[in-house]
Amino acid sequence: MADDTEERTEMGESTRSVHTAADPDERTGSVQTPIFQTSTYVQRDFADHTGYEYSRTQNPTRDALEAAVADLESPGVPAFGTAFASGMAAISAVTQLLESGSHIVAASDLYGGTARLFDDILSKFGVETTYSNLGPGELEECAQENTRMLWLETPTNPLLHIHDLKALSAKAHERGWLVVVDNTFASPVLQRPLELGADISLHSTTKYVAGHSDLVGGCVVTRDELLNDQIRFIQNTIGAVPSPLDCFLTLRGIRTLAIRMERHCDNAEFIAERLASHPKVTRLLYPGLKTHPGHETAASQMRRFGGMISLEVEGGEAGARRFAAASKLFAIAESLGSVESLVNHPWSMTHAATPEGRRLEVGVTPGLIRLSVGIEDAEDLWRDVENALDAV
Length: 392
Known about the structure:
Blueprint: H1 6-9, H2 13-19, H3 60-73, E1 80-84, H4 87-95, E2 103-107, H5 112-121, E3 128-132, H6 138-142, E4 147-153, H7 165-174, E5 178-182, H8 187-190, E6 200-203, E7 218-222, H9 225-238, H10 244-254, H11 257-275, E8 281-285, H12 295-301, E9 308-313, H13 316-326, E10 331-332, E11 342-344, H14 356-362, E12 368-372, H15 378-391
């Protein structure tokens, strides 16, 4: 559970990132949380133990990670974190809060893996999903008697739409729906959905939280103790737990999360401003630009605008492929949010499993490029982007 002292709430982001859930090990004084690489724990008698009995259920390294992410998501207000083996494991566990016959309203621009889970897996168990842009009046149009959950991303993946979390959460709660926000693109340093009314904030910790492309993980955070108990029951039952080493590495990443996010944002803003006037860029999506339709909403609920940029260049898909091939610093790869810069082609990569018609309907085109802007020197990154645009 997160520390709820006033002093903790008033700490700056970097201080909190460095010190959250970082008490020295009681036995040795180790500055770093030890890696408890064990499957089981010796008990004093039958069912008489120290609180740890089997590492699928609990592990001290995982406990520290869960406390850290909960503290970052909800400073000053008690919250509960549950760490998972991947972001999709976390997402899957949250959907298992629903009963057969339930209905989800989800943002139409959504990570392809999430939509694949909704369409190809949940539908087999009688859970249906309606996708919506969630503009004025659209939430009401999507509502059904069996709607139980509102599923949001903001900024969305990959089109960087911005949803008003406070307004949508209030409308959903009027209907008794659970509000879930995938906060992966923002990280808890830039945005805290629980403070804006969401019931659950979740992450693929693979991305910004861990930040070094060396692990796969996920985490779910809520302020509701009963909801947390349900999520932990689901996790323990299905066994989707991260390894102690991955928990340790994620904790190590958290220590630099705030300072990394500042550099990601600095670099993305620098590049987006220059892309905005480049003649070979035909479409540019970045919420930090005043021309972005969600700019004011993003400014009201985010500390800064993040490290993700999506764009199209002249030549459609062929132009996108030439751009990616010519870049030397933006590696073609899945994932995002790491220290190195990456370029992704959603049409053929992260969103390939989404039906073509839906991709085109929401604006995921064959020419769309998604940039995860890393923490390299901004001028070096811009020179690389300029050279790639020359190749287009």
